[in-house]
Amino acid sequence: MLLTLPLMVTLTSPVILSTLAIPSSHVSTASGSCVTSSTQFPYSHAASTPISPISVRFRASRKWILCARSIRHHSLLHAYSVSINLLPQLAWIGFSLTRRYDELTQGADVVREAAAAALDSGLPEIAAEWLEQGRSIVWGELYQLRSSYEELSSAHPDHARRLRELSAALEQAGATHEKSLSATSEQSHGVTHCGTGSLQQETDRHRMLVIERDKLLQEIRSFPGFERFLLHKDFSQLRSSAHAGPVVILNAAVSRCDALVILADIDHVIHIPLPNFNFQRSAVLQNVLGKLLGHARAIHFDERKGNPATRRGVSWESLLSTLWNGIIKQVLDALAFSILGDPSRIFWCPTGPFVFLPIHGAGLYDSQHSLPGHKVSDFVISSYVPTLGILAPSRNPHVAPSDDFRLLVVRQPPSDGLPHLQGVAPELEHIRAVVGNAPSTRTTLMESSVGTVEEVLGLMTEADWVPFACHGIQDASSPTESGLCLAHERRLKLSDIIALSRSRGGLAFLSACQTAMGDEVLSDEAIHIAAGMLFAGYGGVIGTMWSISDKLAPRVARDVYEHLFRNGTRPDCREAARALHEAIGRLRESGRASFVTWLPFIHVGL
Hints:
Elements: H1 7-12, H2 14-20, H3 42-48, H4 54-70, H5 76-90, H6 97-104, H7 110-120, H8 124-133, H9 137-155, H10 157-187, H11 196-220, H12 235-238, E1 247-252, E2 257-262, E3 270-273, H13 279-297, E4 310-311, E5 314-315, H14 316-335, E6 344-350, H15 376-379, E7 380-384, E8 405-411, H16 424-436, E9 443-448, H17 453-462, E10 466-469, E11 472-473, E12 483-485, E13 491-493, H18 494-497, E14 507-511, H19 529-535, E15 540-544, H20 553-564, H21 576-589, H22 595-598, E16 601-605
Parallel strand pairs: 1-6, 6-7, 8-9, 8-10, 10-14, 14-15
Antiparallel strand pairs: 1-2, 2-3, 4-5, 11-12, 12-13, 15-16
Helix pairs in contact: 3-4, 4-5, 5-7, 7-8, 9-10, 10-11, 16-20, 20-21
């Protein structure tokens, strides 16, 4: 932390109060209490002062929220808006990835609670905007900066250059100001570092830079096509993300749980309250899932033969039926989906504990409900998205046909100190066979089993699609160190993947364990390999929520590729979700797969 003093102590320092524009008469001597003067919270001043250190502003915004909520003050939604707007600055882009995520833990739940408050006030469109703005902040900012600055540099190079210069100057000034402010706070407690004069000079310089940057941004936003440059998307823009099918945001807040449905041809959010589901239940189901997976790991796959794994009276059937009855059935009923005809696409955008639950498998699996109409897969083809921006038409994940389709296969070496994956060889043979039976597509099959990280990354930029058949690791202590295992104990890390900037779209098939399992503390940041592939430029990703069966994974891969190459023409990555849907359906119908073996496979993206 850049400030080691408690917030109330810091705010009551005369120098700090002056810097933050808070009259000392507004501040209570009791830490954490809410005192108003002319209906204004002292925390609102601290949170809203542009030149103040972000750490102080954000902590003040959280205090403001607590105070406003406790007395039902009319400023509550404004307080949430201020707090959400500060999140990207809290996770400053100049920090390392690890530092950025550490900073975001301070506001891990603020956006979900903000959305709930907006829904309480009858503002579902605002709730949807906030949930988009305040989630996957690191990924979203990296992608936005790449695309936005490229567009600005192309159209208005002088403005792009000046904006970069001002941004760099502000970053430096902000770091200097924060250090001086901390030192001045120590001075007021008997430690002398610098005087108020130098602090005032730094404050004035910081203020002038802010004014100049804001003026430049206003000028940029006056250009046609740049009206919302570096601004979050409003609801009218978010609607376009539903061009391929309904997008369902599942919000889990302490006070309420809701589904927000966005359709491309409807100018408002379809709000579906979930009164029979609450945050505590979602957390309990997450815990139940963990117990079921722990029990499954203790049993060899061949010993189950499709029988449900149970532990202390809890079963997969009960988990999936709870999701069906409490959430999914209400959503499908509201959208009037039918089991007749081909299933439609649907895109789930879960938040909080919902992120870890197998929404795509919800249903009734007992013998009394064997007929179609009681499972989510009977109605729709499920995909997941970390943000709505992933589905924006401007991403264009489908690349126009060319003379050569390049497929890069990255596989685990036969022996490299890690547990041997028996399914890698047959999976690779399936891919070769399928590609060989597509004569009208000139496919270049590139294989890598001994390449360095740099070599694999280079091949990924050249290839249209990339299947990985290897071990995957989700690092709970340092999520950005999660990755895919290469030869000689090398690891293609999440931090390496997001450094890619691809424009080819295409599909990444991650036939590895735990490639779509995120971080529990920052569930809304989508810190997993599948999301990293999306933000690196892939249009769609097939990944796994937990460890997969080495015996069944090749079968799933074979069926997926047979579907995608079935016409002998260049494959379309937009068909990957349907291909996986049908492959898992055949696997279930065969009776050879238990819940723990078919449920982990998911499709992410378009």
